[in-house]
Amino acid sequence: MVHGLSWPWMGLMCTVPLPLAVALATFLWRRNEPILGNLAGTLVIFGFALGFISRESMALHRLTRQCLDAGFTCWPEPSAFSRFAIYAAIGLLEVIALFLVSLNVERRMRRRHYAPEWQR
Q1: What are the residue boundaries of the structural domains of the chain, listed by start?
Q2: Among 90, 104, 102, which residue's Cα sits nearest to residue 27?
Q3: What is the pTM of this model?
Q4: CA–CA dist 90, 97 (Å, integer)
Q5: Would you tell me how many other CB atoms lie within 10 Å of the CB of residue 76?
Q6: pLDDT tens per residue, range 52-70
Q7: What share of the chain is helix, strand, coil (3-state, %, to 5)?
């Protein structure tokens, strides 16, 4: 679609990577590896973002090639950069959410080693 955004793909970006990243990170968090869990989850989210950006790039390239083959010039609206930036921003927000969840998990892991009467 040269005009308009790919809403189904953006919806997929908003719903799929974060649960997968949290599941992978949780596995590592429970093995007492919070940094590796955060890194693995971040790689999953940014990997999905790069994959969706690549898919969008190929789709725009195909559509503009069809326009050029038909003998006229067409420009995507919004621009390719704006479309890519949306996927990148979604990915960044999901990484921030993953790190916020990680803070709670690490706090619970730390408090587990103290007696209940010493916890606030």
Answers
A1: 7-110
A2: 102
A3: 0.86
A4: 11
A5: 20
A6: 999 999 998 998 888 888 8
A7: 80, 0, 20
